[in-house]
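Observation: inputs received (chain + adenosine-5'-diphosphate).
Thought: call the complex predictor directly.
Action: predict_structure
Action Input:
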Amino acid sequence: MKIVHIAAEIAPIAKVGGLADVVYGLSKELKNQKQDVCVIIPFYKKLKKSFLKDLKLYKKKLIIFEKNRYHKNKIFLAKLDDISVFLIDPDKNYFKRNSIYGYKNDQERFLYFSKAALEFLKEEKNIIDILHIHDWHVSFIAPLYKECFCKKLTVKKIVLSIHNLEYQGLCKTTNIKALGYNGAYFLEKEKLQDPCKPKTINLLKGGIIYSDKIIPVSKTYASEILTKEYGFGLEKILKKHKRKIKGIINGIDNKLFSPKTSKHLKCSYDSKINLDKLIKIKEKHKQLLREKLNLNESNLPIIANIGRIVYQKGPDLIIDTARASKNDKYQFVLLGTPFNKKLEKEFHKLKKDEKKNKNLSINFAYDEKLCHLIFAASDFVLIPSKFEPCGLTQIIAFKFGSIPIVRKTGGLADSVFDIDNKNISKNKKNGFVFEKFNKQDMNKTINRALKFYTDKNNEFYKLLIKNMKQNYSWEKSAKDYLNVYKELINN
Ligand code: ADP
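Observation:
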C-alpha cells in the first residue's frame, strides 16, 4: 500500500510535542510491516539534520502560486531510519525561522505548505492509496484535494489524525484566496465555516468534513470530543461525522524511548533487571539529578512533571504541587516550555518565590537529555491534565520506571489504571488516577502514591518492573491503522 504522511513535525528532527513522536513511530512501524511509506514535512531551518541520512536535492523547482506571485520551492529527500522524508523548502522565508510554530502567520505558512505538498504529489504522478494528514496544520489538504486536485492526482482515501482538537487553525477567506482559490466558496456552513465565528475559516473542520476517516489518538478521547466539554465548538460537527471516527491509541518508539539504549543515561537497564539492581540504578540516577539541579540530598521521593506548559496540562495544579514540595514530603522537578505569556509569568514567579526551596527545581527548556534523566530518576510523573488526547509522558514513564499520577481523561484513562481501584484486575494496575480536575482530588491521590512509596517500598519497585514489561510499542497500534486503511481501500 502506498501511504503518504503529511505533517508539521516528525521526531527527532522537528519536534515540539507528541505529534512528532507519532508521525515518526507510526511511519517507521508501517514500514516494518512492509508498507510503502513516505513523509512530507517543511524544511525547517532548525531541522536536526544529524539524524538524516543521504540528504539530497530531489527536485530543483516546484512552483507555487501565492499572493499574486509565483514562488520557487526546492524539494529535498532524506532517509530517517528507513523512512523516506521529503522536505519542502520554499524560497520565501516561511520555515527559515527559529521555531516551528508561534508566528502570527502560522496559518499562512501551513496553508502554503499544504498546497505545496499536494502540488508536489501531483507532479510525482504516483497513485496514492492513503494520504494521512495530521492536525490543523495540514487539514486543508482534505478539502483542497477533493475540491481542486482530485482530477489531477489519484488519492484513494484521506485519513485525518486528531492529536489535539484545541488547535483548529482559524483564518480568513483571504488566506485561502491568497493561494488562488475562492475563499467564499469554502466559507459555507457545510464546508469550512467556523461554527462559532461565521466569517472565519476553520481548517481542522475542513479536515473533519472532507476526510474519509478521522482518528483521534485514543478511544476515550474519541468519545470525549463529541461532548461540549471537550469538543472546542466542533462537537456537533464531529457527532455528524461519528461514523467516520475511530480512536486508536499511540504507541512509543522503542528506540527513541528506552532506558536500555538511551545515550543520555549513565546506567542502562530494562524490564529484565532484578529488584536490587533497579534500586541501585534508581538511586544513582537520583543522585545525579539532585546534583545537576542543585536539589537537597535527601531520601524523599521525586515527583516530576515534563511537558509543554499550557492550560490543557493543568498549570494551577502543577504550581500547587511544586510549592507544596517545601513541606518535605517529596521533591519536585519540572521540565517544560511555557507556550503563552501569562503562564510564562506565573511559572517564573513560582521559580522566584521558591528560590530557597531546595526540594524544587524548575527548568524552562526543551532538553531531551535532562528529560531522560528525569524519567529515570523520578519515582512519580504527575500529569494532571484537563484533557489529554493520548499523552506519551505516562507511557514513557512506564518504560523508564516512574509511576504516573494522572487525571482520568483521554489517553490517560486508557493507559493508567489505579492501584487502589477494586474494580480493576491486579494485573492491569499500574499507577494512580484521580477523576475530578481539582486540587483536593489530586492531593488525595498524590498522598496515596506517597504512602504506597513509603509503606510498600518493595512493592513499589516490583510495580516499576511490572510496568516496564507492558507493551506500548507501535506494533499493535500500527496494525490497527493498517486495518483502517485496508477497510477504506476495500470499500
Ligand atoms: P503533547 O503532545 O501534548 O505535547 P505528549 O505527552 O503527547 O504531549 O508528548 C510530549 C512529548 O514531548 C514527549 O515525548 C515528551 O517527553 C516530550 N517533551 C515535552 N516537553 C519536553 C521538554 N521540555 N524537554 C524534552 N522533551 C519534552
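Thought: report the result.
Final Answer: Residues 17-19, 21, 306-308, 335-337, 365-368, 371, 390-393, 396 surround adenosine-5'-diphosphate (CB under 6 Å). The longest strand covers residues 53-66.
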